[in-house]
Amino acid sequence: MGHGGRGTAATHQQQQQQHNGENPIAVKTAAVSARVLLLASRKRMITTAASGLQQQQLSTSLPPWLPLHASLALNLALVYYVVFINIAAAPGTHQHSNRGQQQLVPGSTSRQQDAARCSNSSNDHELLQQQQQGGANRDYRFCSCNNNSSSSTSAATAHKKPVQDFVFHDDDVQRPVTSAPHLSSSALEHAHECSSNGHFVVFDQQQQQQHEQQRSRPDRDDQLQRRRRRRRTGACHCHACFKGPQCAELATDCILNLSFGDPTMFESYWLALGSQATTSIPAWQGMSYFAHKHNAFLFVDPYLEQAIRELHSLVGNAVTKNRHIVVGVGSTQLFQAAIYALVSLQQPQAAAANSSTTPTNIVSAVPYYSAYPEVVSFQQSGKYRWAGDASKFQQGNADQKAAYIEIVTSPNNPEGSIRQAVLQDDASSYGSTIHDLAYYWPQYTPITATADYPVMLFTFSKITGHAGTRLGWAIVEDVRVATKMSEFIRVNTVGVSQDSQLRATTLIHTIINGHKQAKMKQKHVKDNGGEEEEEEEDEDHLVDYNTQQKQWRPFFHYGQTILEERWRQVLLVMEGHSLFNIPTYDQAFCSFLHKSFQPNPAFLWLECTDGQDCHQLLLKHRIVTRDGPSFGASSAFVRLSLLDRDSLFDLLLQRLASLR
Question: Where is the Alliinase C-terminal domain (predicted)?
Answer without folding.
Answer: 257-522, 547-659
